[in-house]
Amino acid sequence: MAVTGMASDGQRSADSATTLPSEVTRELAKYIVRARYEDMPAAVRREGLRTLVNWVGAAVGGSHHDGIDRAVAALAPFSAASHAAILGRSERLDIMNAAFVNGVSSHILDFDDTHLKTIIHPAASVAPAILAFSEYRNVAGREFLNALILGVETECRIGNAVYPDHYDRGWHITGTCGAFGAAAAMGKLLDLSEQQMRWALGLAASQPVGFRESFGSMNKSFNPGRAAHNGMTAAVLAHAGFTSSDRMIEASRGWAHTISDKQDWRKITGGLGAHYEALLNTYKPFACGVVLHPAIDAAIQLRNRHGLRAEDIERIELRVHPLVLELTGKTAPATGLDGKFSVYHAVAAAIIDGAAGPKQFSDSAVREPSVIALRAKVAPTADPSIEPEQVDCRIVLRDGRTVHQRIEDATGSAASPLTDEALEVKFLGLAEGILTSQQARRLLDACWNIERSPSAATIAEAAVPR
Amino acid sequence: MAVTGMASDGQRSADSATTLPSEVTRELAKYIVRARYEDMPAAVRREGLRTLVNWVGAAVGGSHHDGIDRAVAALAPFSAASHAAILGRSERLDIMNAAFVNGVSSHILDFDDTHLKTIIHPAASVAPAILAFSEYRNVAGREFLNALILGVETECRIGNAVYPDHYDRGWHITGTCGAFGAAAAMGKLLDLSEQQMRWALGLAASQPVGFRESFGSMNKSFNPGRAAHNGMTAAVLAHAGFTSSDRMIEASRGWAHTISDKQDWRKITGGLGAHYEALLNTYKPFACGVVLHPAIDAAIQLRNRHGLRAEDIERIELRVHPLVLELTGKTAPATGLDGKFSVYHAVAAAIIDGAAGPKQFSDSAVREPSVIALRAKVAPTADPSIEPEQVDCRIVLRDGRTVHQRIEDATGSAASPLTDEALEVKFLGLAEGILTSQQARRLLDACWNIERSPSAATIAEAAVPR
Predict the structure, then answer these.
(1) What distance in Å separates the CA atoms of residue B1 and residue A389, rounded to the nearest whole number?
(2) Of A188, A237, A195, A156, the residue nearest A33 (C-alpha)
(3) A-chain residues within 8 Å CB-CB of B207?
(4) What domains appear along chain A, each with residue ranges and CATH number?
(5) CA angle A233–A237–A241, rounded 5-degree value
(6) What is the CA radius of gyration of chain B?
(7) What is the ipTM of this complex?
(8) Which residue among B226, B240, B251 sits closest to A207, beta carbon to beta carbon?
(9) Is the pTM of this model over 0.90?
């Protein structure tokens, strides 16, 4: 039951319906159990479709990374069932292992969706869980989209309640909140009761995954993949009556108090069904964390406008949001994954290639001598007056000239979102070489048209190379 | 490389070989990779055997709890492989799901082993992982025992480094450290290189499981079961070359700094191969957390000495260590699992039955009117002068008399360990009704004789009812 109360700052909350801490898990469970596709605003459904298109493209695009080869080799011997596809590949695994691998695959290029308020990558834990399940039991397209949106909504709301403290401590928030999303979405498809959904959330809460120390290794993409596995496990156990606490999210020795010093419960339960965090999802034009996007954006714009070549450049001065150096301060990355955490590499590669896609974050790209030479000329400075979507970039040329670009809203940010057309170009580029163009197009159509499909499994089927 | 240095309190460490934080994961990995059965002291091997006997008994004894029925029903549909047995049952699952279920089963009665310094239940995450793997690939008995001891050693050392802060915050330390134990033991059986072992520890670190809020529900035993699954997953991925950080335990945004305010690195790397935490493992005479054992011990002694019946009793006064009320202060438990967290129930049931085994912590026992009536007469007081192994119990009788018992070292504590004979009685009692007496005896012998067995899988085979 929702209880109107005082906000934690002592002011009556603006969004009226706040809940006491004792009701958080219950309120959330009740909402998930009752939420219907029919009641979801058209704009939210549309954003859910865009999330799906972007996620499928990222998963197919990542499916032949070394990390996926290794994960499949490791797990296949223990997975005799072959219920579900690995997108972009020919192997099949049991649904939980397939969900894991597809989750890893969709995040390994760091090209998946981002909820900017929390830096959660929402789809990477939710979509693979329900897609694999759709191959095991028929799930109608609308049911699938509804579950996807509810999963994204659940994890982003929970993330909002503990961000930034939780992230600052060292948690990879995508992996810690992802299990909630997967459990909520799977629980919806399993038609859990409110009591079962509370247990599913409790069991999901019990399995946070990932620390920021993983950044730069395959362990980073392991985190959302494992969160998908964890959330599925939580939901199927709860469905069978396996119990948990009814109050795992808010209890004093439960999830939020143990993993964060901040707990803003209203962020979880305020405006459920009225306000949608899932509407705030964004999609990347560049294959790395969003903190780097303004700098890359500026570098590519300057390169193209002035026809810059590496040998023209004396020095690249960047004024960046402080998190850029905290997260991407690696000066000498050793692998492509490591390169995603180097503002030096990202900007150098973007100047040389005019792009920052998977190719620019490959192992060979970070070992390319011309990139290594140029990254030594990248000079970033943390500036607290610069917002996360902004950058100020000044390039000093060898001939004495200086060129300058300030970015206010990087491409792909909430204020400058990728258009549907840009999403399609990104999708087709990612599928290139893995699927035929005809297959890629068919897969893209299957995603856009999921609401009219009697079976969400068509997406998985269309994503397997022939 | 081990670096001799100053201890954190500014004194040179007594055990000479301390390590810098930058070397913790590496030192530990190196030790695990090199440790040989031949070099393990006889007393450590013997304690490993006792750990095994106690664990197998607990797993068989718990195998028909409601929670296990539900877990098997939930997971079997997604586990087409049937490589490994569920102890005490006829179903078979793939090795990771079997490890999970056996881990849950071995902890669900709260009758498994305890490392008293950390309250970790060490075997529940380690033994099920390597036993299931032994059914998939042949593992000699000595290799199995070596891996079991190394797993226990690894998780207890890591637990020591962060206890008590980590536990005080709300983490269920058995689930958070258990994945390290399972990963170390599985990694040993997979013959990982030092680099792979660092990754395995990193991936295991990335998957802490469980909060104290789970206590009283099936979620509590989920935690070590899932830790077994997590550690296995970590080891097989690392074996296939799936990378992690090399320094996940000690890095500033890695495991220990994120999940605890205390990090005592010497506890992890000091005296490796010389001092064994695995030697400090203990086994319970009562089917609940060790904090309750002194009170139960005293209650049963007074009952037996004075022939007490419930109707004789006016009031049961207990002076207990403060953690007793913090952990087991539930006054009106609703289920058997909940009853394990009620000093009121435990003492009342022990007085009435003269025992505190699985039967006294069943759902029916907590609903028994005579127990409910007597638990209202239990009056515990927290007393900081009382040690965890102690209790002071005074029972006021209706006829005006008072009887008194002070316990200094509860049965089963480090100073008063269960004898091998008592372990056998406990084992056979747990197997009763699940295996025939002949089968139970054969299983017990298989455990005691594992060092001479060419295949550890004989234990799993002997634990399946015919």
Answers:
(1) 43
(2) A188
(3) 207, 209, 226
(4) 21-282 (1.10.4100.10), 290-407 (3.30.1330.120)
(5) 165
(6) 22
(7) 0.93
(8) B226
(9) yes
